[in-house]
């Protein structure tokens, strides 16, 4: 995927391995990430849904709208022992055309999560 740029958002394929964990629990492991750089926000890593542990994602009722990406649907993350990280992941199922590459991919953000990024 070639880098896509406008004056606010920049997408690019990331030739790295991205793992998402909460403590010792591995939640996602991908070599097919897309980075989204948005002015004023931290870089986000969007991972294919297939690279995320399926038993960890529970749909949330939370929805948000971004004028630059579209409508996001959120997930709670289930950890062993019944702990739940609320609204810790999200997906743009039908993003606006400028960021269509992130459609169906999942991004994460929660204080208990760690992203590990390694060179390919």
TrEMBL record:
<protein>
    <recommendedName>
        <fullName>DUF427 domain-containing protein</fullName>
    </recommendedName>
</protein>
<feature type="domain" description="DUF427">
    <location>
        <begin position="18"/>
        <end position="109"/>
    </location>
</feature>
<dbReference type="InterPro" id="IPR038694">
    <property type="entry name" value="DUF427_sf"/>
</dbReference>
<dbReference type="InterPro" id="IPR007361">
    <property type="entry name" value="DUF427"/>
</dbReference>
<dbReference type="Pfam" id="PF04248">
    <property type="entry name" value="NTP_transf_9"/>
</dbReference>
